[in-house]
Design goal:
2 domains; single chain; 6-stranded parallel sheet; alpha/beta; 48% helix; Rossmann fold; DNA polymerase, domain 1
Length: 276
């Protein structure tokens, strides 16, 4: 009888791979959502914030494509244009999306409260930091240039245009781990504010954290979130948590600022020979 011995990683967390908009910067992930609304408005369609946000986390061309095939949006497009939204239409919209997004990004570059401090403390523990994003490299550079002035400088940064396919494929995570020199995957934690973030993490075999208050799942800027009635805020955050857990995420937090206890918990699980 052949006996197969499996080696499991039992060391500490070596890397945190974080999303950008809604996770490290841009409370509420407001920069991309507004541009998608404007993009379809220019073509005679009024889409809602909910429709604009639903595919968030995908590479931006994929995001546009996903909006276009939503039942209500597809029907409206047919009524306005007399035909279905084609791949050529998606390509044209993406080309228009890029300069619009580049224009608004500097206005939404403020770090999430507590993000810089938690990253500093993780680095003190020997954890390396990577950033991944559905933005292209030009967009990512604008975000990271603004973030660096506020104290956030990742050890590696990978965008959707760097890999064959963006989220939920795991390639941005794998590229990040390669650049960081970190392995195996279970030595890493992925944190993000969208379901594709979590799906990419699960596909990569890493630990996953979803964030709900600062990102796309709540979809409100900091002031707007703070002004919600307490019961409405609690209910909306709970609904977002449930969505994340249904998607299979390991942990759900309000903000990246809350992740230190989770990293400690993952360290304990790894020491007990658990895997993601």
């Amino acid at each position: 009888m052949n006996v197969v011995f499996r080696r499991h990683y039992v060391g500490p967390v070596q890397a945190l791979i974080t999303d950008l908009a809604g996770t490290v910067v841009d409370f509420g992930s407001c920069a991309p959502a507004g541009v998608f609304v404007e993009l379809f408005r220019r073509r005679g369609l009024e889409i809602s914030q909910e429709q604009a946000r639903a595919p968030m986390g995908l590479q931006k061309k994929d995001h546009i494509r996903e909006i276009s095939v939503m039942r209500e949006v597809a029907a409206a497009w047919q009524a306005v244009h007399g035909s279905a939204c084609s791949e050529e239409d998606v390509e044209r919209m993406y080309r228009e999306f890029v300069p619009l997004q580049l224009e608004v990004l500097p206005r939404y570059g403020t770090l999430i409260p507590g993000a810089a401090e938690v990253i500093r403390r993780l680095r003190e523990q020997g954890v390396r930091i990577a950033a991944t994003t559905g933005y292209n490299r030009e967009m990512m550079k604008i975000v990271l240039d603004g973030a660096s002035a506020q104290g956030f400088i990742p050890d590696a940064a990978v965008c959707a245009s760097d890999v064959p396919r963006g989220r939920p494929a795991p390639w941005m995570i794998f590229r990040s781990l390669e650049e960081l020199g970190v392995y195996p995957p279970e030595a890493s934690v992925k944190i993000g504010d969208t379901l594709p973030d979590v799906e990419a993490g699960l596909n990569a075999g890493v630990w996953t954290i979803g964030v709900v208050r600062t990102g796309n799942m709540l979809g409100l800027g900091e002031a707007a979130a703070a002004s919600l009635p307490a019961e409405e805020l609690r209910s909306r955050l709970q609904s977002a948590r449930e969505e994340f857990f249904k998607a299979g995420t390991h942990y759900v937090l309000d903000s990246i600022a809350d992740c230190l206890p989770v990293i400690e918990a993952v360290n304990r699980r790894l020491a007990s020979n658990e895997r993601p």
